Amino acid sequence: MILTSILVPILTTMSTLHRAVKGGWSCPIVSDYFAENPTYTDENFRHRFHMRRSLFLRVVEAVEAHDPYFQPALDCTGRNELDDYIRMGEATSLKCLRHFVRGVKEAFRATYLRRPNPQDLHRLLGFGEARGFPGMLGSIDCMYWEWQNCPNAWRGHFTRGHGKPTVPTVVLEAIASADTWIWHANFGTPGSNNDLNVLDHSTLLDEIRDGTAPPISFTVNGNHYQFNICIAPRRARKDIERTFGILHCQFRILVYPARFGDMQTLKDVMYACIILHNMIVEDQDHIIVSPNYDPTDDYENTHVDDTSPTMGYQARIDREATSRDKVIAKRLQRNLIEHVYQKFRGQSFNN
């Protein structure tokens, strides 16, 4: 329980519930949260930490097993000094945070920040087509995190010169589906870039160019296309904007300017928050199903191709040209407008 002893005092806020007091400090952490009859109920725990107690303990056990830093060590008297609430200095708290976010990323990234598997693709494509956008896996947008302790040598590179506050920021580019699960995240692009040229630094276009992106083909208004859509109209873009709002509510560290001075720690914090967010979505069954989505439907306008993409330099150049072709983009836009009109005309929407 060493990691529990460290994390909960840092994250806990004051409550109006009655506490027994010992020497100016609250009761031991186990009696407050993890005893047979704890002071705080499961609902109090979920409200305070935005996750269920069972999920919290799952994360604690995995990180403790992964990082020896959190494994308890006895002093010369054979006693573990972290059994009670502890007073930690700022340096120790930051060191614990670094170990924790790195442990979460290494222990859970393969599962909770993975690429969609075939079952995921079928569900996501079904969501997209039911909402009028065949081939859409999710909506994409960028979030800017202010970097308070950006090194002076990098401040100009990470600061946008006009249009927004002239402070260093780091960009998170992410793709989320309707259930707010984040399927793709690329963090670390300098804030001097805007939302469009952030894609030039993204691994997303690298996957499309290299042929490692999910092979999807779809038909819109009688026209055939062989690439997936991530940028969606306003109705679907609410998904990623809502996801960013949830991230800020769940993890207050993302609301305030980043205080770490090294980029690697910033990345570890951001990816750990995204992984924990996806774990919460799964644990609380927050799967949002479109009213028009039928999981048994084959969705004949959208297909996941089984054939391997053509490799080689010329094929990469061709995929690069196709992904940036403005003529194809304009034609797809017109076809989508006509498709949505034919599919939903006569219906009214509140969103």
Q: What brief labels describe this structure?
A:
3-stranded antiparallel β-sheet; 12 helices; 11% strand; 351 residues; alpha+beta
Describe the fold and architecture:
The chain is α+β, with helices and mostly antiparallel strands. It has helices at 2-11, 29-34, 42-49, 53-66, 90-112, 118-130, 155-158, 203-210, 234-250, 263-283, 313-323, 326-344, and strands at 21-22, 25-26, 139-146, 169-176, 182-190, 216-220, 223-225, 302-304. The strands form three sheets. A three-stranded antiparallel β-sheet has the order 3-4-5. A hairpin with a 2-residue loop joins strand 1 (21-22) and strand 2. The radius of gyration is 24 Å and the shape is globular. The chain starts with a helix and ends in a 7-residue tail after the last helix. The model is unreliable at 12-16, 18-27 and 289-293 (pLDDT under 50).
Brief rundown of the structure:
The protein has about 350 residues and is of the alpha+beta class.
Question: Layout of SSEs?
Answer:
Layout: H1 2-11, E1 21-22, E2 25-26, H2 29-34, H3 42-49, H4 53-66, H5 90-112, H6 118-130, E3 139-146, H7 155-158, E4 169-176, E5 182-190, H8 203-210, E6 216-220, E7 223-225, H9 234-250, H10 263-283, E8 302-304, H11 313-323, H12 326-344
Helix pairs in contact: 4-5, 5-10, 8-11
Count of alpha and pi helical runs: 12
Element string (H = helix, E = strand): HEEHHHHHEHEEHEEHHEHH
Strand order of the largest sheet: 3-4-5
What is the molecular shape? globular
Task: Outline the biggest β-sheet.
Answer: 3 strands, antiparallel
Share of residues in strands: 5-15%
Instruction: State mean pLDDT (0 to 100 scale).
Output: 77
Using only C-alpha atoms, the radius of gyration works out to: 24 Å
Task: Please provide the count of β strands.
Answer: 8
Question: How much helicity do the residues have?
Answer: 40-55%
How far apart the termini lie comes to 46 Å
Helix/strand-derived category reads: alpha+beta
Which parts are unreliable, with pLDDT below 50 for 5 consecutive residues or more? 12-16, 18-27, 289-293
